[in-house]
Amino acid sequence: MDRLSELKNKYGPVLESMPQHGVQIINVELRDNKLLVQGIVPTQEAKNAVWNQIKAIDSTYADLTCDLRQQSEAEEWEALQKAPPQSLASGLAAAFRSDQTPAFPSMLSNLFGNSDPQQRAGLLNHLLASAGPGLLGAALPGGLGGLLKGGSTITPEQAQQISPQAIQSMAEHAEKSNPSIIDQVSNFYSQHPKTIQALGVGAMAMIMSNMTKRS
After folding, report:
1. DSSP letter assigned to residue 43
2. What DSSP designation does 155 have?
3. Are residues 123 and 90 in the same domain?
4. Judging by DSSP bridges, how do beta strands 24-31 and 34-41 pair with one another?
């Protein structure tokens, strides 16, 4: 086994747990015969958690250089704003599909709850186009369910009447009917980067990490 593989195995539990703490891993390589790990942490608490795990494996960590830096919300917002929409959409889709983040319907419910009326209507009409009004109508409040079956388009005013819980149910139906809805929703929200920040540090770290890999 080469030196890099040996050290990655030794500190494997740390590397595997980093995304769970919201850490965005930027680089892992062998440098000066040590394992170099570089990443961005969402909070000081997350940084401390990683270091506690490192010290539990080897209190001296003489064969490891771990460079973790905290990224401010302002820097994160700037990175999102500058990202090409296709790159942001890819990162968001990766977060939606990851087993290290909440399920897609739950995350979409969160986004819907933090969206403005225009965005809510746009999302609903994407879901309808993907899964069909007949399938989704049952997940909505009575009057709107009947309206959708008639093939109407949801307006911002109507979208305001729909709860995030109903969106979660709709997303479950839509994902089963057409798994590509994840990509469609990701493309939609890539046009609204400020709303994406509502997903929290874990999902944001995964989105940023995926964007870094594609750049």
Report:
1. S
2. P
3. yes
4. antiparallel
What phi and psi values does residue 49 have, to the nearest 5 degrees? -65, -40
Distance CA 126, CA 114 (A): 17
Residues 127, 38 within the same domain: no
| CATH number of the domain enclosing 38 | 3.30.1340
Which one, of 137, 156, 157, lies nearest residue 147 by Cα? 137
Beta bridge partners of 34: 31
Say how far apart CA 146 and CA 6 lie, in whole Å.
Answer: 61
Indicate whether 122 and 99 sit together in one domain.
yes
- Give the Cβ contact number of residue 110 at 10 Å: 19
Give the chain's end-to-end CA distance (angstroms, integer): 31
Residue with tokens 């997903």: 199
Query: Across the strands, what pairs with 37?
Result: 28, 66
Task: Find the domain containing 54 and state its range.
Answer: 3-70
Tokens for 152, please give them.
């109407």
Residue count (the chain): 215
Look-up of token digits 């969160």:
110
Cα–Cα distances in angstroms (integers) from residue 76 to residues 27, 28, 36, 62, 112, in the given order:
18, 22, 23, 32, 21
pLDDT by residue for the chain (215 residues), tens digit each? 799 999 999 999 999 999 999 888 888 999 889 999 988 888 889 999 999 999 999 999 999 999 887 766 557 767 777 888 999 999 999 999 988 788 999 999 999 998 999 999 999 888 877 766 555 555 555 555 655 555 578 889 888 888 888 888 888 888 888 889 999 999 999 999 888 878 876 788 788 877 766 65
